[in-house]
Recover the amino acids of this structure.
């Protein structure tokens, strides 16, 4: 419920964004009351307060030596699912440097990649000039995606962040081959995995197949359960323990003995620069406690040698760099900046959050669910 800006409370007790009581505004920069009011044509005063706060946040970030850039999402555009992916890809430093080196001749006939590189260039210009208050407009990319076959990313409609990431990868792969860098996606995000059931009883290897994936998928409930059993357990070992719970019998059709064994996961490729984990939830309306339990079960660091066979331990260490989150029908991005401080990006707005514990607390308080997490190799 919004309140009139003329409610008799001290200015220090009012939220600068929604004019409601500060104590009742648990979201601060992601104020649910504000979002409702922005849809109202009569909310000009609140929109002015919001814009003023964005400028203050951007100026403060620049003064602290941190360059942060937001993305536009005007009422009715529903760009948030795209904006969070752009933010996370921009902060995959090796990936963006490689893409921005491409000659225009390699991508100028690909509307999606042309628009993405255009956004990256705009980000670079804003960061260089510390013009954080000037949000970048993603319309060109939104339109290019909307023109793809199917109706997944129709302009003016909400979409899924993970699906738009997959669509971007498809278009980038085409241009990468043309640019003479066909292994771009695999080098940065790909996991070439072989599954195998090795029987300790008869010695046979069955259920063998291989695939390339760009997301490591895991259930939030599985991480929560393992976190409660083994508090502080390394994330890589947690994922391995979850995988070991999936068993298959030694295939009798291949001359096996039908004894149950865990499925082995062998990494055939060089470990990528970025390990991407997709977290699946039971619902889109999890409780604060369920969100906290899942995030408490995830340490910031991951040893890929704990997850896959044929990867030496302690040699490929990854750290959470950014993550896509959502609450209800709205997406947010959290990014770890170079000064080891987490920032939250809510379209055009940016807010300094603090350390990882503060991120967990903010997600739990706002019932914000992590969806796609990007771990960069140290």
């Amino acid at each position: 419920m919004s309140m009139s800006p003329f409610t008799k409370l001290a200015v220090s007790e009012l939220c600068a964004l929604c004019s409601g009581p500060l104590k009742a505004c648990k979201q601060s920069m992601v104020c649910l009351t504000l979002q409702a009011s922005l849809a109202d044509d009569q909310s000009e005063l609140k929109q002015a307060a919001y814009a003023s706060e964005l400028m203050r946040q951007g100026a403060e970030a620049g003064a602290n030596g941190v360059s942060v850039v937001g993305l536009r999402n005007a009422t009715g555009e529903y760009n948030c699912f795209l904006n969070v992916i752009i933010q996370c890809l921009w902060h995959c430093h090796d990936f963006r440097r490689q893409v921005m080196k491409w000659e225009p001749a390699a991508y100028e006939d690909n509307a999606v990649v042309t628009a993405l590189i255009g956004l990256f260039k705009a980000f670079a210009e804003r960061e260089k000039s510390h013009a954080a208050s000037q949000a970048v407009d993603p319309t060109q990319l939104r339109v290019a995606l909307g023109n793809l076959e199917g109706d997944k990313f129709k302009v003016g409609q909400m979409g899924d962040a993970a699906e738009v990431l997959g669509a971007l990868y498809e278009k980038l792969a085409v241009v990468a081959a043309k640019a003479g860098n066909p292994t771009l996606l695999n080098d940065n995000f790909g996991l070439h995995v072989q599954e195998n059931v090795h029987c300790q009883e008869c010695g046979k290897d069955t259920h063998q197949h291989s695939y390339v994936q760009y997301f490591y998928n895991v259930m939030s409930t599985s991480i929560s359960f393992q976190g409660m059993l083994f508090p502080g357990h390394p994330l890589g070992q947690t994922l391995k323990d979850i995988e070991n719970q999936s068993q298959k019998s030694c295939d009798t059709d291949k001359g096996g003995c039908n004894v149950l064994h865990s499925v082995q996961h062998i990494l055939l490729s060089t470990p990528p620069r970025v390990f991407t984990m997709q977290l699946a939830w039971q619902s889109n309306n999890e409780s604060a406690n369920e969100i906290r339990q899942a995030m408490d079960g995830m340490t910031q660091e991951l040893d890929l040698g704990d997850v896959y066979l044929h990867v030496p331990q302690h040699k490929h260490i990854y750290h959470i760099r950014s993550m896509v989150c959502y609450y209800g029908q709205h997406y947010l991005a959290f990014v770890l900046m170079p000064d080891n401080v987490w920032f939250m990006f809510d379209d055009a707005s940016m807010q300094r959050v603090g350390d990882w514990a503060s991120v967990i607390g903010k997600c739990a308080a706002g019932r914000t669910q992590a969806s796609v997490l990007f771990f960069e190799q140290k």
